[in-house]
Amino acid sequence: MDYTLEFENIKTKASEEISKANDLSSLINIKNKYLSKKGEVSLMMNHIKEVSDKKAFGEIYNKTRKEIESLINEKIKVEEEKKLNEELKKERIDITLPGNNYVRGIANPFYQTINEIEDIFRGMGYSVEHGPEVDYDKYVFELLNIPHDHPARDMQDTLYINDNLLLRSHTSSVQAHVMEKAKGKPIKIICPGKTYRRDDDDMTHSHQFAQVEGLVIDKNINLGNLKATLELFAKKMFSKDTKVRFRSSYFPFTEPSVEVDISCFNCKGKGCPICKNTGWIEILGAGMVHPNVLKMSGYDPEVYSGFAFGIGIERVTMLKYGINDIRKFYQNDLRFIKEFKKVKED
Ligand code: FA5
Question: Is there a single domain that holds both residue 44 and residue 161?
């Protein structure tokens, strides 16, 4: 038997079948037909005992096996690629289809106002501090010059948890915390946050509302600095031509104390329903930090002085955007929130 010719015939036959095969399963069948244990190439090994040059036989046996194997593997690769391309073609993304319309949320308007106020004061070199909403009487009242049984406690109807612990009725409590930590060093902060009072809810009052407290303590701080600061704030928050007016007032933690009005941004001081025909709108309480408050937190009032202010966030937001009822902030009515989206985009 001319085994060289026999191997050559097997290889020719196999390569013809391989070139005709056009799917993966026929290629696997061909592989089995020639290369499996009982495949045509493998069976040729039975003839080795008949040949004298066993080494040459072995070499040609291995060569034929390898060649057929590599022909099959190459074709398998081609077929796999073809299959993948067909699948990709079927799965092609249709970029002409309209996309999903995701509705973007929007921050509650009073958070938008807090962000705006933070930006304005950061621009003036203030840093932002936060304090606890549930706090000790010491920080909400005592360190702010309002001892137990002081009549000024009636100014803010407070929600008590027990004799000593309460929901803060103003953000001035954060002043007391910051002053305690500062240990006599200068301070320049604002503190935004929620506050709680036993007030009956109506168009301008809520039992939960937000304030931003401001506090500056340093040497040579005077009422003129407070006025200039609040004037700049009002111009940035409302409009460039906004005027600021101080009216004498009373807070136990400031002396002198003032209530601050801005000229009505709607009628520019002429008188309209928004300012109740006065030309002015009250936006905050403020004053020079009381010497007792400075002393209680370890500042020498002969060396240090300071000013503080407390802004009602909802009230500012209502004035800025002409909102007539504070309860709208808390009713989760999406139509109200969406109005704010429009204001932001305008
Ligand atoms: C205070 O709370 C002082 N702590 C402010 C202050 C700070 C004065 C630092 C001096 C120095 P008052 O009680 O006036 O002050 O409240 C401040 C602002 O909070 C008011 O002008 C108002 O805008 C807002 N506010 C008060 N009560 C309510 C309420 N029930 N609902 C909504 N806003 C309110």
Answer: no
